[in-house]
Amino acid sequence: MTSVLDIRPSVSPVLLRDALAEMPKAQLVNPSEEHWNTHVTGVSVNSRDIDNGWIFVAIPGMKQHGIEYARGALTRGAVAIVTDQAGADRAHRYLAEADIPVVVVDDPRLAAARIAHAVYRNPAAELFTMAITGTNGKTTTSYLMRSIIRTKYPQAALCGTVQTHVGPVEFSSDNTTAESPVIYRFLSLARQENCGAAIVETSSHALSLDRVDGIVFDVAGFTNLQHDHLDYHGDMGAYFEAKRLLFTPAHAKQGVVCVDDEWGQRLANEAEIPVTTVSALSDAPANWRVSGIRVDTVTQATLFTLTGPDARQHTVSLPIAGQVNVQNAAVAILSAVVTGFDIDEVIAALAHADQVPGRMEMLNPGSTTQPLVIVDFAHTTEALAWTIETVREFVTGKLVLVFGTDGDRDASKREELAALAARKADYLWVTDENPRTENPQSIRDYLLRGIASVRPDMSDVVEITTCRRDAVRKAILHAQVGDVVLITGKGAEWYQDIDGIKHVYNDVPVALEVLAQDPRTGK
After folding, report:
1. Distances, alpha carbon 234 to alpha carbons 12, 117, 247, 409, in Å
2. Cys bridge to 280: 4, 173, 327, 328, which one at CB 3.0-4.6 A?
């Protein structure tokens, strides 16, 4: 599968001066009228992503300044450098004698978005666009949105955490929301391929880092806000403010807000655009309400009733297990309805929605010789609690949990997450997710302390120090018929980040391989 960095829409050249028209304070270091007339056909903040005729935007980072990669960008075809004053002061070290325009701007990251807006000619304006944000549920909601709007836009494009789809082509994703030039290229390619519509998972990082600057979505949805990413935002208030940016006229025309938590209720009051509210898992006042959540024991579909302001009731069948996914489905349904889709057609389409990769994904339903294995992305305390509660419905034996937590991320949630796991699951296999540059043992020690606060004797707890693949294999083979093995934290993520290297790894195919070779199947 190719990467999102391989997205290359057709582009007609624009002049450098026009590409920077939305950055009025931009100044050339080496002033020349001819430099302003340089023809530009693309932009990137990644030197390895540069193509012929592109602008390289050198952004200051936590450890290095992007200008240090200017020479690599130059060899790949960059025709201009845009950076801040600090980058411009050092540019000569990396550009040698190259006669290339160097442009100084106050905010290179914002400039990258605005350059992309100009170079790719505002593609969002020619598409029907939907955005979804929230701590949990973004990926599930985005897939449900796509299934719903396919009644009108069969080739609707999607850009998100797991994969990016444009027509029949799939691209692997590295971030929930890519850097702004990649988002614009995605939208430009969706326009070029006549997809008609595009859905973008929009993270708090993306909003605070201007990755969707210049894009005004037709509708924005909000699922929930929970303890996560505080290593970046600092506190829940700042985290909320980043999410709130999506619900301003600069980013969306209207919104759908789930008010199940205090943050959704606050957002409904503070949004600067018209919003429609829905309560799915609470009694909070809302325009739309969910009731009667139940499971069809034959199809394993989740059924619920959705009631609107006119008191008309609509029965919904969601082919994905879990009460929390009712929240996601309600936001997806209403995001389509408020933009003019017929609610009956939307609900009919939802009943045939595709399986969301790595979200409550049952790998061997109906097996009579093995434990049921489920892969889910749950990685916050609240999400894990919801997921375990759902999975309990399928357990006749033990609930076996394989879990870890990320390195170089918010450490304050680790012990709380592990304590919840110790209270709710029967058997725990502690392993690694994405250690990144942090010592994996140090991360697991947090989890073990959290478990010990609930189970001092550490009964039915196994720490796997080798690799996540071993944890998945041992957990499945140790479990019995009637047990459920729940593998959480990564979902269908395609890599495991260890010491800065992204190794190809995916819980789903690894678990399927173990199941296929399990001697209990008699194969």
Report:
1. 42, 30, 21, 12
2. 327
